[in-house]
UniProtKB/TrEMBL annotation:
Full protein name: Heat shock factor-binding protein 1-like
Biased composition (Basic and acidic residues): 77-89
InterPro entries: HS1-bd
Similarity field: Belongs to the HSBP1 family.
Residue span of region Disordered: 59-89
Gene3D superfamilies: 1.20.5.430
Gene Ontology MF terms in the entry: transcription corepressor activity
GO CC entries: cytosol; nucleus
Domain of life: Eukaryota
GO terms, biological process: cellular heat acclimation
Length: 89
């Protein structure tokens, strides 16, 4: 009887090993697929960002504001002038 139980135990261990190996291979395959998908999406996002930057630069060039100060600077300058006028009045 011990020999028979030993054979069953060995077969059960071998079956479990095969099952675990197959499961790990499936997981590896799924992770690789997901990884490839994520990398592809990141590359696409990078391309979109580059296109957006180029569009912004094109619009700036069309408007002629390539070297002009930011829009906040003139409004701050106007508020400083208004304060000076109030102080001199």
């Amino acid at each position: 009887m011990d020999g028979h139980n030993s054979d069953d135990s060995k077969q059960s261990t071998a079956d479990m090993t095969v099952f675990v190996q197959n499961l790990l291979q499936q997981m590896q395959s799924r992770f690789q697929t997901m990884s490839d998908s994520i990398i592809t999406k990141i590359d696409e996002m990078g391309s979109r960002i580059n296109e957006l930057e180029q569009s912004i630069n094109d619009l700036k060039a069309e408007m002629g504001v390539e070297g002009s100060p930011s829009p906040l600077a003139p409004s701050k300058q106007k508020s400083d002038e208004a304060k000076q006028e109030e102080g001199s009045a």
